[in-house]
Amino acid sequence: MISIEDFKKIDLVVGEILAVEKVPETDKLLKLSVDLKEDKPRTIVSGISLYFPDESLLIGKKCMFVSNLEPKVIRGIESQGMILAVSTEDGKFSLLEPEKDIPIGTKAK
Fold first, then answer.
1. What residues have CB less than 8 Å from 96, skipping those under 6 apart?
2. For residues 46 and 26, is the Cβ–Cβ distance under 8 A?
3. Which one of 12, 77, 100, 106 is least enclosed by Cβ atoms within 10 Å?
4. What is the DSSP secondary-structure string of 35-102?
5. Cβ neighbours of residue 53 closer than 8 Å, sequence gap 6 or more
6. What number of other Cβ atoms are within 10 A of residue 74's Cβ?
7. Are 61 and 73 contacting, i.e. CB atoms less than 8 angstroms apart?
8. pTM over 0.90
9. What is the C-alpha separation between 45 and 64, in angstroms, rounded?
């Protein structure tokens, strides 16, 4: 269990996926370029490739991201956040997506 104060430390932000590339020599990893309404897009590496055989379907999607994780180098790429998703043991998968009219950069409260 974590306290509400610990939970409040997590910055959950609406972002839009601008570009997607498969990470070479991996089956699951995608390199996302994400607009969080900052000075420049962020790079986020995510293991969601198996759910998106046509990764171009991700371009333009608004999703929820954790924006204040420490950067981590994954396969030589610095990942600057995390996309939020859910999956079940029987293979169901969903990205966490806000309603369409919620602007990019909006933070969860």
1. 63, 64, 84, 85, 86
2. no
3. 100
4. E-SSSSPEEEEES-GGG-SSGGGGTT-EEEEE--SPPEEETTEEE--EE-EEE-TTS-EEE----TTS
5. none
6. 16
7. no
8. yes
9. 14
> What band does 79 get if pLDDT is binned at 50, 70 and 90?
very high
In one-letter notation, the amino acid at residue 1 is: M
Amino acid at 86: V
33: three-class secondary structure by DSSP: strand
Residue type, 70: E
Q: What pLDDT is attached to residue 100?
A: 82
Q: First vs last Cα of the chain: how many Å apart?
A: 20
